[in-house]
Amino acid sequence: MGGVVQQIHHSGITVKNIEESIKFYGDVFGFKKIGGVDLNVDQEGGMKGVKMIIAFLKAGDADLELIEYLHPNEKKIKERNPWDPGVQHISFKVSDIWGLYNKYKDSIEFLTPPVDFVSEEIDTTWTYLKDPNGTILELSEDHKKRVFKT
After folding, report:
1. Does 66 share its domain with 88?
2. Rounded to whole angstroms, what are the CA distances from 63 to 77, 123, 150?
3. d(CA 132, CA 135)
4. Which helix (H) or strand (E) holds 111?
5. What CATH number has the domain bearing residue 126?
6. Could you read off the pLDDT of 17-50 as tens digits, one per residue?
7. Which of 43, 72, 101 corresponds to the end of one domain?
């Protein structure tokens, strides 16, 4: 019997300012807002009286959910590093990784310039950056089909 997971449904990111984040993901990566909702819920994630704004974005086959909490509203961004346990990243498959890097390297915090990774199974170029909320994003440009051996 196979696993129960069929695919990743979407990635969700908590943001400090939803309009700023919609603009960032739209301008840099071409995401379009396809929906949204304002929610007041009695309990969410163990918190009572939660108020939030949610925006749903799409680019290609990638679905992104942005969430701004209005209550509770602590907006501190804690420093996160790729090597910290529990830190996640979202990887976007892109074309022209060097073009993106050169266009945004002065206005976006990149953790590394694009790096080539070549092995028997993979030929890709990747880089990491942070969005305005400190979320770690990976950009990956594949040069041949990825074949992972199981």
Report:
1. no
2. 23, 25, 27
3. 7
4. none
5. 3.10.180.10
6. 999 999 999 999 999 999 999 887 765 566 677 8
7. 72
